[in-house]
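Collaborator request, handled under Task 6.
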Amino acid sequence: MSRFTDRISSDFIMRQLMKGTMSQRDTIICRLDPRVLLVWQLFFAVAPFFLRDLKALTAVFLLVAVVAFLSHVTLLIFCLFVLGVIEKFISLLVIARFFGGNSEAVLPALILMLKFATVSLAAVAVYTTMDPEKLALALEWFRFPSWLVFSVSLGYRMLPIIAEDYTAIVLLSRARTPIPEPEGITGRIRWFLCHVKILFSAFYPLMLNTAKRIRVISEALELRGFYSGRQDAASKQLRFASLSFSGRDAAFLGLSALWCAAGVLL
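Structure tokens returned to the collaborator:
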């Protein structure tokens, strides 16, 4: 059991994070213009809430699912998405039952669950597989604040480092904490609670280490004139030169619009 837990908490999560932030740059979706992907995701973050028909919502969800499949969403993110959808659906049914609902509440709960699932899966398909540099360029092109663009780009790049720090803190805490033997039901419960306590207590030094690292990076960039250089017009033109709207982007938007129109009208 301990071997399985270590693999899930450290090696597996590290590989999935590295794969999601560094290794998804050659997929079909990642080759599209990041501005197109942001507009596409924004549309599917709003449009499902204006639909009430189950068939139309199912068609929209299938489109988003195909895009997520082409984006090569990592197994960790996909499992978290599935668990979140199941938890949302069950909680809606429990709330409906608590307030006196019957079997007729299943259909409204299913419709609401499809709306949340579509919005979540569209965000997962775009933001968990897009290159951080392309995402930062797209946000800057849409005139988002420079501090927000830099924070997004830095956050993406620091995810593997944060995961590695968290793993090291957890391993050190395990080495210094007397862990009870998982013998019997009481022993297993104490073993489980001890591990949960270690996992949660590791967040406090992790936040301090991350804040210290971000402060050092920000001071180093400020001394080198990073923030003033990003406001230069020539520098912006040079960065935006890599953004181009091609026929592939137009085909992606056209097929998405055609599929959604067919799902709503038919």
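The cover message to the collaborator said: "DSSP finds twelve helices and no strands in the chain. Residues 146-176 form the longest helix (31 residues). Please let us know whether this matches your experimental observations."
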